[in-house]
Amino acid sequence: MEWGNYLTKGVHKNDPTILFHMCEVGKLKEAFDAKTSYYPPTYREDGFIHATAIPTMLLIVANHFYRESQGDWICLELNPELLCAKVVYEPAAPVGNKSSMTCENQENVPLFPHIYGGLTKVAIRKVYPIVRGPEGEFLSIDGLVQVPHHISDDSQKHISNQG
Questions:
Q1: Cα 155 from Cα 138, distance rounded (Å)
Q2: How far, CA to CA in Å, does 46 sit from each of 43, 50, 100, 122?
Q3: pTM of the predicted model, to two decimals?
Q4: What is the distance between the alpha carbons of residues 161 and 12, in angstroms, rounded to a whole number?
Q5: How far from 112 is each of 2, 91, 155, 163, CA to CA, in Å?
């Protein structure tokens, strides 16, 4: 589902039994190796961990906020009942200093789960590898979602031009 369609349809009902969070593998491993909770790099600025209950939103969000990032990424499937933090459904918010995507129709603003605290291993149900393209684009989350066609087509053109 495209971001614009998502926003204009005003999807408010998320599955409260599953949440998803994308993160850099190295930063998660670093926290867990130190036997501490994981907090993303923008936690101090944002005040919470960004998440979604709608897996089809993940690649759209990743390509908007994190395309310039380096390194390997994963998607965590979380059990909200096992989080040691409060989850609040709120409108989309900036990630660090990067603006969130906005909606013209403020009546049907979608709500996203924001996790007010760190992540621990016990809340992670499953880990999905994220596939990225040569320009940093997020192409798929293996076993969960694929990229929208317009991004995939651009990546294929780039790959064809390289070979």
A1: 10
A2: 5, 9, 12, 24
A3: 0.77
A4: 41
A5: 16, 6, 29, 41
- Interatomic CA distance for residues 11 and 61, integer angstroms: 15
Q: What is the DSSP string of 23-52?
A: EEHHHHHHHHHTTS-B--TTHHHHSSEE-B
pLDDT tens, position by position, 89-132:
998 887 776 666 655 555 667 788 999 999 999 999 999 999 99
| Domain 3-162, CATH class in plain words | alpha beta
**Sheet order of strands, 19-24 included:** 19-24, 73-78, 124-132, 138-141, 145-146
Rounded CA-CA distance 118/125 in Å is 16
- Count Cα neighbours of 35 within 13 Å in the Cβ-side half-sphere: 0
Please report which residue ranges of the chain form alpha helices under DSSP H.
3-9, 25-33, 43-46, 58-65, 149-162
The span from the CA of 58 to the CA of 156, in Å, is 20
For residue 126, report the phi and psi dihedrals to the nearest 5 degrees.
-155, 150
Domain residue extents for the chain: 3-162
Which residue type, as a one-letter code, is found at position 83?
L
